[in-house]
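Schema walkthrough. Field components (list of strings):
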Amino acid sequence: MTKLTLNLAARFIVLVLVQVLIFNHINFLGYINPYIYILFIILFPANNNRTLFVFLAFLLGFSVDVFSDSGGVHAAACVTLAYIRPIFLKFSFGTIYDYQSIKFNQTDFSSKFTYFTALILIHHLIMYSLEIFNISKIILILQKTLFSGIFTIILCLIITILFSPKRK
Amino acid sequence: MQQIINFVLRNKTFLVFLLLFGLSLFFTIQSHSYHKSKFINSSNFVTGAVYQTANGIGQYFNLIKENKALLEENRMLKSIVHNLDVDTIRSDFKDSLKLDAHFKFRTANVYKNSYSQSANYLTINKGKKDSIEVDYGVITSQGIVGIVENTSQNYASVLSILNTRSRINAQLKKTNHIGSLVWNTESPEFAQLIDISKFAPVAIGDTIMTGGQSTIFPKGILIGTVNSYNIDSGGDSYIVNVKLFNDMTNIGHVYVIENLQAAELKSLQKPKND
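Field assembly_structure (string):
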C-alpha cells in the first residue's frame, strides 16, 4: 500500500511538472496543446476511495491552474472527470470493472481506446467551455476540443505503452 | 439529525464533488474579472521558483536572437543620440527624450509566456522587492507586451495584450484618432483596434502606437501596423486588424515602465469621473 501511495505521489508531481514545463509550450499549429496530466486520473486505481480520488483530482487540476494562470478551469474539468469516471469504466470494460480488478496494462486495446477517448474529450470540452466562457464561440470550443483531444489521445496512448511494465 | 448525518455520509462523494466543482467555478469566474484574480496566479513563490529553474536552462537557446534584438536597439538609440544637435539640447525645445523623464524603466526577464489560450499571462522575475507594482506597463524594444496585474515578493504576473480582458488605449501615429486595442483570440500575431472614428484616415501599412490617455504607457510606444480594416456593425467606427511588431510568441527581456506621475494624474481625473 505504501509503495502504491509513493508511486502515485511521484506520478502526480512528475505529470504536473512535465505538463507545465513542456506540454504547455508545444503550441502545435499555433494553439494545439496536449493535456497529458489527466493520465493521473485515467490510470488511478479503480478500487480506491472515491471521495479521496475526487479531492486528488481537484488538487491536480488546481496545481496546473496555478502554473498556467487559468483560474479554475483545469480543476473544474478534473473534478468532473473524476466524479463521472466509474460510468465510463463500466461502459468501456464491462464485466472486469464489476469485479473491481482492472489492470490497465492488461486490458485489450480497443476498450482502452474507447475509455481514453471518452474521458479526454469530456475533459477538454469542459475545460475549453470554461476557458473561453462564451456560448457564441461554440465552434471555436468544439474545434479546440477536437484538435487538442486527438493530440492528447495519441500522446497518452504512446505514454501508457512506453511506461507499462513488461508483459511476460 | 441522525437522518441528516446519514444522508451526508451516503452522498459524501457527490457533496465533495459539488463543493470542489463550485470552488473551481468560483476561481474561474473570478479570473475573468480584472484585478480580482488574486489567489491563483503564477507569481507565487512555488511556481516562480519552478519557472526560474526551467528558464535558467531554456534561456541559452535564445541567446542569439536576444543579442540581435539588443544590437538592433542599441543601433537605434545610438542613431538618436548622435543625431542630436547640441544647439537643440540647449534651447528650450522639448525633445522626446526629455518628455519621458517622468517614466522610470526597469528591466526584467520573462519566465513564462503563453499565447494559445484566450486569457494569456506572462510571469516576470521582478516583484515587490524591485518596486514593481500593479498597473505598471511592460514593453520590449519592439513594442508593448502588457500590464502588470499581480505582484509577489520576487515575481510579477503580467496581463498580456493577447488576453480578452486587455484593453489598451492606442492611436494612429499620423493623426490623433484614438481607439482601444483588444484581442479576438484568433492569432497571436494580430490584435484589433476598435472604436476608432470612421472619420480617421486609416490606410493599410499605417503605424499604430499607444495614446497618451492612459496613466500606464507613455505616448508613442509602437504597437504594430494596419493589416486590414473594415467598418463595424454599428457603422460609425472602424475595426482595424493590427499586425504586431512584437513576436508575442518569443519574448525574453522586457522593460517595466513606472509612471512617476500616475497618482497625480489619477487624482486630477477622479472628480470628473465620479
